[in-house]
UniProtKB/TrEMBL annotation:
Pfam family, one: Beta-lactamase2
Residue ranges that the Swiss-Prot or TrEMBL entry lists as coiled coil: none
UniProt KW keywords: Hydrolase
First-tier enzyme category under EC: hydrolase
Protein's recorded name: Beta-lactamase class A
Residue ranges of the region described as Disordered: 1-28
EC number: 3.5.2.6
Residues that span the membrane, as ranges: none
GO molecular-function terms, A-Z: beta-lactamase activity
Domain Beta-lactamase class A catalytic, chain residue ranges per copy: 53-273
C-alpha cells in the first residue's frame, strides 16, 4: 500500500524559523529548548525572528534562527559608532577630544536625556557615555556629524561586517531620499562582534574595553536581559556572579538586543531581533515574553 506523502511543514508555514540549538545539557535540561519552542510559536503567529547565541570561550553556536539574514535592528548600529569613537580615543586621535555643540539639525526625539537638559555642549567621551547608557539619539547625531558616516562605514568594513551597518543618523521622520532604517544587521555578525569585544580583539584591547565600559551602563533591561534579575540602573559590577553588557534597539514593530552575559560557569554573546505587527499591545507583550524566555535559557547556561 502506497504511503501518504508527509506534509512539508515549511512550505505550509513559510514563516517558520530555520534554526538550531545545541545539545548541551544543564541540570538534565536541554538548554535553549524553551527559547526555541517559544520563538517557534511566535514565528507561527507571524513574527519574523533572527537570533544567535555563542559560547564566548569555545565559539560554539548554542542557538540560531536565520542568523545570516540582514534585518532592520533599530539602533543597534550605534555600537559601530561607539567603536570608532573608542578607537580614536585609544589612538590619541585629536578628533576624539574637545567639546561638541548640539544644533537644530541634530535634533531627534525618542530615547536619551540630552534633549531634556539645558547644557548645549558636551565632551566627545561624555556623549559616548550617553549613547551607551540610554542610546541617546541627540548625542548619537552630534557624534555622527563630527565623526562622519563614511568613517563609521569604513570601521565596520575593517571589522569584517558584511551584513551589519549604521545607515543613517536618527530622524523623527524618514523621507524618500533617506535611508529606510537607522541600522541593519545579522544576528550572527552581532553576536560575533560582542564575543570579539569580550575577547578584546575589536581593534585592540583598550578599544574593546572602552566600548564595553560604555555599553555596560545600559539601563534598558526590558528584553532578553529582563531574565537576568539585574538592577537596570546599576549593574556595572558582578551581581550574584553575573556581569552584563548589552545594547537594545526599539522601533515600531521592532525589538532588538545584542549583549554578553558572563556567569560562574560560562559566558554567552547573543543577538536577537524580532519584527512584528505592533498594532495590538498583546503582540508586543508576546514578543517581549519570548525574548525573556530566551534570556532564561542563556542564564541557565552561564549560571
Amino acid at each position: 500500500m502506497k504511503q501518504p506523502m508527509r506534509k512539508d511543514r515549511r512550505k505550509a508555514q513559510p514563516e517558520l524559523p530555520s534554526g538550531r540549538r545545541s545539545a548541551a545539557q544543564t541540570h538534565e535540561t536541554d538548554t535553549f529548548r524553551r527559547g526555541f519552542v517559544s520563538l517557534t510559536k511566535l514565528a507561527l503567529s507571524g513574527v519574523q525572528i533572527t537570533a544567535s547565541a555563542l559560547d564566548v570561550t569555545t565559539e560554539k553556536v548554542l542557538f540560531s534562527i536565520d542568523d545570516h539574514l540582514s534585518v532592520p535592528t533599530a539602533s543597534l548600529g550605534k555600537v559601530i559608532l561607539l567603536i570608532e569613537v573608542a578607537a580614536r580615543l585609544t589612538q590619541r586621535d585629536g578628533s576624539a577630544h574637545g567639546l561638541l555643540d548640539r544644533t537644530v539639525v541634530d535634533s531627534a526625539a525618542g530615547t536619551g536625556l540630552w534633549q531634556h537638559l539645558q547644557i548645549p555642549t558636551m565632551p566627545v567621551a561624555d556623549l559616548a557615555v550617553m549613547v551607551g547608557q540610554s542610546s541617546d539619539n541627540l548625542a548619537t547625531n552630534v557624534l555622527l556629524r563630527h565623526i562622519g558616516l563614511d568613517a563609521v562605514r569604513a570601521r565596520g568594513e575593517a571589522l569584517g561586517l558584511n551584513r551589519t551597518f549604521l545607515l543613517d543618523k536618527v530622524r523623527d521622520h524618514r523621507g524618500p531620499d533617506d535611508a529606510p532604517h537607522v541600522s541593519v544587521g545579522s544576528a550572527r555578525e552581532l553576536s560575533t562582534l560582542f564575543r570579539d569585544l569580550a575577547e578584546g580583539s575589536v581593534v585592540d584591547v583598550a578599544t574593546s574595553q572602552q566600548v564595553l565600559a560604555w555599553l555596560g551602563l545600559s539601563a534598558d533591561l526590558s528584553m532578553v536581559a529582563s531574565a537576568f534579575g539585574l538592577d537596570p540602573l546599576s549593574h556595572v559590577h558582578s551581581d550574584h556572579g553575573l556581569l552584563l553588557v548589552n545594547k537594545t534597539g526599539s522601533g515600531p514593530g521592532i525589538r532588538s538586543e545584542v549583549g554578553i552575559l558572563r556567569g560562574p560557569r560560562a559566558s554567552v554573546s547573543y543577538a536577537v531581533t524580532m519584527r512584528f505587527n505592533d498594532e495590538e499591545l498583546t503582540s508586543r507583550l508576546a514578543v517581549l515574553d519570548g525574548m525573556r524566555t530566551l534570556g532564561t535559557d542563556i542564564l541557565e547556561y552561564v549560571y
